[in-house]
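Board notes (copied after class):
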Amino acid sequence: MASDVTWWAGLAVALAVVLGLQATRVFVSDLVFVVDQSRRLALLGLIAIVFASPLLAPLVGRLSGGRLLPVATLLLVAARAGLQFVDWPLARLILAAVAFAAANWMLIPLLRWRARAGLGLLAGSGFDLALRTARTTIDLPWNPGVGSHLATAGLLVFLLVAVALVVVDRGPVEPRGALGFLAFGPALGLFHLLTGNVGFAIVHTGWPLAAASALLGFALLVGLASLPLAGRHWFGWVLTALLGASGLWLAWDDGWRAVIGIAAATLAWTVLTGVVALGGRSLRMPARVWRTASALAIGNLLQVALLFRYYTATSDHSIVLALFGLVALIAALEWPRVWPAGTVALLPHIALLVAGPLAGALAWQLLTTREQEAVPLVRGTELVVVTYNIQSGYDRQHRWDLEATARAIERLQPDIVLLQEVSRGWLVTSSADQLTWLSRRLGMQAAWGPASDDGLWGNAVLTRSQPLELRTTRFRMTQNLERGAVAVRLATPTGSLWVASTHLDDPRPAVTIRLLQIEELLAFLQPMRPLVLGGDFNADPGSPELTRLGESGLVDAAAAVGATDPTSADDRRIDYLFVTGELRPLAGSVPPISASDHRPVVVRLALP
């Protein structure tokens, strides 16, 4: 059995990782909206500064008289506690930056003293997965309520206890070098994108939340069990690297190919991350603090550079392979001649830290989730349609609050909701699967229209009835993020009805691009009649784009009933509901709702 001090050091690492991941999501997501996502160089610079914060660890250690671990722990506890209650965006950014830096500073002494405590990196990843599973993919810092506050308090108390026990008696130092720290950033970047991304698993496997989370957790546990076996020989590295690369390739597919790919990629990630977390081959006197801090900072900056490219390209598969390649390369250099003494004995304890919370989270999901019952779309001959750009859950004050989004929709009592700017697991937009959460919260059926390469950002349709047919398209031309449309066919008392949601390119001068997208959109929608088309068209009334839509026979339903108020934060009317001639607008409005930087457009229609 592992010594007590190693166990507590591993627990401290696990909790630091959990809290660090939470701080990362808050900092990156809030920064994108507070600074404005169009200012990409400013975003890159600010993120790089925070992610390079491990470089300050030697200075903090010197100023604190060698008490880097307790000082970093107290900073992390204070900053993370503040995140749970403060909702002012700028304050949250500062608190998240401090929490991220402090979590990184904690890892340096803990892992320099106790090499085996590096397995806490995997335990923390599994525990993080469990917390988000229990909360339907929403992370604790964004969850109001007593339950989330108690969970946060529990994490912080356990962290304080674990660190106190390590500080009182850390035991003999287990030597390890600094090289493995270089892989931590890329490894956690891959965790954000795929191996810990529940939304990615839901979208690509087509499985419900509990099954998708179970897939990731099971693969992580199998990876833990495979760690000693894979590390016995260099051949184990070759097999693991091949398994991971092929898994990443398959993971971007759909159905059973994605299931196999996600499982293989997560298993390989677990093995390789475990090797670099343990310190691998570099079993010698601990590297100096400045060297360890430099390796951790460089790894973080590599993660920043690759993730920045990933999201500015609206997801690029090659970036995922590059992150995995960096981890695999460092693991190859660290591949152990022998494991640190007691590693195998510690593995069951680490597996328990993963399996226990995850099993509880899955049980909670299964017990609290009710199957959504499909009901008739409408019982009469009228229906209410809403189009709403939800800005990924961020309101006009840059606060992320998906509950406010749900309440805004609920107030309108719609039969159909056409959504834009929906994220299903992007780090830059909270990492939550927003469609799964909204669908459950509102009790509506969801249809998804991905626009990004990874399938996690795009448009959606929520409706009270089960769609009869689903079609999607992605536009070939774009100037900013990738764009597309989703259309579903629904049954009504008077026959079938098609509804579609879309989002055109947003730079004001991109008129030519939007006109090309409109031509693709009209070709896609041509056989769908009768039709309701809604979305964010990023074009003003009377513009060439709106003129072309009118020429195609589509009617501006909101304008037909006088609902022509501005819909965007800059007082432009750019969100529209169009209908074909078979449908008759009866009434409409643009409610003064601030749960997004757009206002919803509501129209009541008479069915043909």
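Comment from the instructor: The first strand starts at residue 382 and ends at 389. The CA atoms of residues 541 and 547 lie 8 Å apart.
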